[in-house]
């Protein structure tokens, strides 16, 4: 704990007079009555904190269940905002939250610091040596933490506790203002319940929609708009962008949030089983049907059903689904009895369904039923620095999984991530972080405490944003005079054939290499004429 004796000097040895304290706090007091965004309020709060109590880094974290979520940082690496700190994994955070007063850790404390390796601009000197943390309470309950860290072990020796307590009171007021504004923004009891359901769903799931780019914010606004309705949503986007997370968010914000969300990957099932999975069957309907079984639509009654890779559905099943969407009635396979269901449908695809309709592979009437509200998920290459926030989230996941105290990115690694075009999007980033961390750990077992990933660990090409990775020469030459769809088809065929050659015609190995579901790869191969 910090000594409660009042000291009249700042850590830099400068007298901290009442006038100086007032000068630092007055702008924050005036901010309470201004129309500012949450992000700007928190940024000004941390800026004032470092003005009064100079350190190398500061952070504001909100407690959500058993996890601390960074809302604002000053002096820490950008990826910190994407990290989620489970309190049980970080003894310092656990101790800070357990005490009502500010706590300072000794420079030689054996408790690992969550920010080791995350302070900006200190290559070669990674460990935090002076750490001060303060819990924030709103309406008598712990809301989160305010932390101040320094590389100099004696930086906070002469801290003015009276000034710190005054600042903490103002910080709590700032947070309270933000909370009140957010509450007023949710008009009506129904909206409040939807927000609470979404918060609970986010705290139960380790995955969430992370980002701060304009493209990400636009998508979030679209989700909020359509979630309140009962419209059918068609989520489109490239492979790996997180379409299922978007579907989960729509359901969690909808009036059906307290009802089931049932998901089905249409590409993961053989054509013969899709109908049974969707509509169910009765005993004896086909070989192996030893008992009655409800389908996904019945299981989702009153809630939402999410059909991923909907473009892979057979035409016959599309016709039956169309009937369910029109009147809410379905029949189990082998039964004459109709079941009435009340289900909201959300679908997703990485294919151009309008083109599939023109090619005769998808029913036009079914397509128009699905695309009542189309929602596009932007690819990672359009989201700018969101890649660093997402990287921070995956770094923290892998830090915990690998038993490390800190897992960070070197400057050249951050630059490489920002430069790379991400054809596999967020899923590719997740796999890259996990694979690179594991390999780097295996190569540096004598440096387990803090592991820094460099650009060399990622081994990414230098293809910049906006440029396509070069296609094989034969595909480029052949596709010059052809339409876009034909060129894409030839490129897909070339990629699959090359992967087959590398894996000695082993389709399972090809599916793993290309990051495709085996059933999806089989359908692709049939469409390309390779099977």
Automatic annotation (TrEMBL):
Query: Does Transport show up as a keyword for this record?
Result: no
This protein's name? Nitric oxide reductase transcription regulator NorR2
GO molecular function terms noted in the UniProt entry: ATP binding; DNA binding
Organism expressing this protein natively: Paraburkholderia fynbosensis
- Identify the CDD domains for this entry: AAA
GO terms, biological process: regulation of DNA-templated transcription
Entry keywords, A to Z: ATP-binding, DNA-binding, Nucleotide-binding, Transcription, Transcription regulation
Q: Could you tell me which residue ranges the Sigma-54 factor interaction domain spans?
A: 209-438
